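Attaching the record inline, Q. Sequence:
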Amino acid sequence: MPLPHHHGGGHRDLCRLDRLAKQAGQGPKPKLAAKIGILREIVAPIGNDLPGLRDRALLLLGFAGAFRRAELACIAVGDLEEAEHGLRITLPFSKGDRESKGVQVGIPYGVSELCPVRALQRWRDAAGITTGPLFRRIWATPRPKDAPADWRPIHVVGQAAVDPGTIARIVKARGKAAGFDAKALGGHSLKRGAMNTAKDRRVHPAQLKQLGRHRSYATLATYIEEGDLFEDNALNGVL
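Structure, as predicted:
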């Protein structure tokens, strides 16, 4: 179902998108949308060891770019380009890239501790990543039988990229550590969170479609939650 792009129709277009979202929601229950409030809670307890720096960067970048887990897993250093206002990432492939020409995604600098560009740089600096895959497997030394109480594992960054399944497991594990139901979270939680955070800001559906790199509004609707009966009430705050 196409949505008009004319000015002034944003509210009606959001309503139509809500209707499509309702229809899309009649299928299997989607993963929890890690909207900005949830993302902030998930990221807050993450430490500054190598796994922590990697996972924080992965979560924040995945959200900021509305990346699918497969897209996030395949990003390499050569796909990054610094820009005045942030970072430009060229995806070698994307589900919405019909002609396989590559898709550019802009990641703006953040204004808080959740800045994905700075988080990514901290991870790269700590891991010494200058070429190759951006997000990699990390190995931890096993705990010796006679290890002291304050023993900490030594982490070694591998050469191989994480796979999409590992990204889903990271989202689940970090969510569980923050008190969320791991079963409700998954690799799509970051993309769904980004799309619904943007929708909550009343972004026009055309911009939502561009953010998610979706081919159609029907596909976009599978990531969008229905509008809230109270937050989206037309008379909210009037009486």
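Confidence is low (pLDDT under 50) at residues 4-8. Strands lie at 80-83, 86-91, 103-108, 136-140, 155-161.

More tomorrow.
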